[in-house]
Amino acid sequence: MSTRKLVTLLITALLMFNLIGTASAALPEYGEEWKDTPSTTPTVSFTDLPSTHWSYKYIAEMVSRKVIDGYPDNKFRPNNTISRAEFAKIMVTASGIQAKKVNYSSFSDVPVTNWASPFVEAVKDYMTGYRTANGQYIFNPSAPALREDIAVALVKLKGYDVNRLPDHSTIEAMFKDYAGISESAKDYVAVAVENGLVSGFPDETFRPQATVTRAEATVMLWRAYQYGNDNKGVGGGEPSTTTPTQPQPSPTTPNQPQQPNTNEKFTVDTLVGGNGEGDVDGPVRIAKINRVDSMAVDNSNNIFFLDTKTNKVRKFNHSNGTVETFKTINAEFDWNRQEGTSVTHYDHTAFTPNLLAFNSANNKLYLWGTRCEVDVTPDNRCFGNYFSTIHDISSDVQLATFSFAPQLHWSRFMTFTDQNSVIFGGHNVTLSSSMILEGELGKESDVIANSKDGTGANLSWFNEAIVDAFATPDSLYTFHTAYQELSKIQLYPRKVESIISFENMKFDTVTSHNGKFYISSGATIYELTTDGKLTTFINGSDLIYNDGNPMKKIMHIDFDSNGNVIVYDDNNKAIRRINL
Fold this sequence. Notes:
Elements: H1 3-13, H2 56-64, H3 84-95, H4 117-122, E1 130-131, E2 137-138, H5 147-158, H6 169-174, H7 183-194, H8 214-226, E3 266-273, E4 282-283, E5 294-297, E6 303-307, E7 312-317, E8 322-328, E9 335-339, E10 342-346, E11 351-359, E12 364-372, E13 375-376, E14 382-383, E15 386-392, E16 398-403, E17 410-416, E18 421-428, E19 433-440, E20 446-450, E21 467-471, E22 475-480, E23 485-490, E24 495-501, E25 509-513, E26 516-521, E27 524-528, E28 534-538, E29 543-545, E30 554-559, E31 565-569, E32 574-579
Parallel strand pairs: 3-29
Antiparallel strand pairs: 1-2, 3-32, 4-8, 5-6, 6-7, 7-8, 9-10, 11-12, 12-15, 13-14, 15-16, 17-18, 18-19, 19-20, 21-22, 22-23, 23-24, 25-26, 26-27, 27-28, 30-31, 31-32
Helix pairs in contact: 1-3, 1-5, 1-8, 2-8, 5-7
């Protein structure tokens, strides 16, 4: 059986609901789910499942398809109530969702050693957890799976749009026990009825709080494969033969973002912090964040974040779910520069860290900062000239590149063209000039662009503006959140142009990823391509917060290896993941 068909099987039937065999838009009739049986019957030999059992044919076929199985004692236990953990496993098995073996748990009551952990983690975007009074987030794996919970899970997995205010009047008229459906589930039930997923029972009830037996779940799986108002697939497999109609974006002016084609919902997990402000390492349940001035994610999904207040680079260790102090600005950052027979010592106390960046080409983490060439006064003012040093801090601290000229007071961006080269840009406050430098790692960098002579973009710092950039073989693209401007610097031959600017829009942060810019405004993230096309990537109103704490403003953005968005939420002092 194809993955797509298995998904449809799971999505449509797991509710003991009525499933329609045609593509008619008419509402289902009560009780249709029990009208047909499999035309062929493989043989199974569970000691507690005689061939005369009402569900025998369904179970036999589903066992033969390896969607569901029995117990080691050769029993099927058809009348056992199915638990939330068992339902999670069935969702994974039937839909083709990839089970996720992780080294940390999203739920306090499902440790990674629990047999259900890979299945629970895989379906956490479809089966919501519960927030307890003491703040813990639990899954209740041994609790029975209720019909309304399953309705929510299946509509989410199906990908139906519940953001358009579904009509409740139909289900209110159909079901005598409409009032018993939880308010949070009514939209999903209404969408399920509208799309022919559910019909309820002949006594005109929905039974939202009813449990489901293993036999009933198996029958529903089979019927979902056979029937349903659409053949929309989820999670891979064969392409759907029905193309759903999507709303087209309305015409926009060049200075406004186009709207997304779908109102897709995205869940948000808190990875680090959310426990109040502080500088506390340890397991994520107790770890606290003081501030994040720069952030980078490596190839193993470890998250590094810079706190300039404490002069620390801290690390969220993805493998064990803990936070640790990775580097402190100490004697490791001392630098002895040798020129001929002369050696000049630069002490770490004159080094101010500004910016983190990860080079995926060589799997190394870099920290850029400014140094005071002569001395630092007691009130942290530089008595002398500034210069820049970039350090490889992946293990031991090593100088990667440096530049004495120009003097850059502010680090603005750092990007890598390969495993050996870096391009970075900054601003000199005294000269009111922005400069871009390129260097081979291990050597001094050279200036390749200067805004003063019209060969570079303005990277000046004000109002906490953020700048990022990325390079192509012949050009460098930059975006400045304060100027709201996308610029292109053609390197050979030199040409500078403003591609587009966005008036009357306020942006908070920007990052470059795979040749595009991702820019936030509040909790919304836009995608900007090099031709100046701005579209809504993630609408803040479409975010579902698993811990119940909404974001007001995104301060930093990055991406993990799975394509999920990692952001810093300063209001909650938390690093969070938007699951795509």
